[in-house]
Amino acid sequence: MKPAIAFFDVDQTLIKGYCGYTVVLDLIKKRMIKKRRILKALTYKTIGRLLKKMNVRRMYEITFSDLAGFKLSEIMKLGEEIFHKKVKANIYQEALKEVKKQKSLGHKVVLISSGPRMAIQPIEKFFQADTSFSIGPQIKKGILQKEIAEPLCYEEGKLLLAQQFAEENRIAIQDCSFYSDSISDLPLLKTVGYPHAVNPDKFLLREAQSRDWPVLQFNKILGKNKKAPVAELNF
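Structure (tokenized):
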């Protein structure tokens, strides 16, 4: 069997909703991010959508500029707390089964998301993925900087990161799979040999149907008072 990698987007694919929004709202409540930052970022995002050219880097720079100067260890600890309190319950049970299936085939599992690093790494740990790629600030001596790290894990940036990881592991990208909900992930979806549209937006649904890609619907979440079956977590 050829070695392969299963790449997974996170928001609306592994979890219901958007982990970045959850993190930002919590940081606002803790007064670590000023309210006006998120309002400015949302305005920038809205204008970007209207112009069909959203600058994700600038949106993140605006939103997380107040975190510059914080210790990475402190921010990652907060990310873990937010995950267990507000994100874990929204994990799709079907996603757990799909990850388990990929692992049973001997494939590496890699999360690749445009969500913030502090939100994605706890999800990587929960799914026992091999690694993850996400968006975050540059780090110098354990301290967060204002500048966003490159390459940006979005659109063509996701493709670049996936190709680099595949090459480092001597795996052909055509032997890999990718699960995503968003049309913004089309560059990587078109490149892997086994693309999957999960809970796709209307644009990706149209693309998937025209290319005969599998379309998956994930609906069941773990919930706050439920535990995933042991068999699903025993990766």
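The chain has one domain: 5-233. The mean pLDDT is 88.
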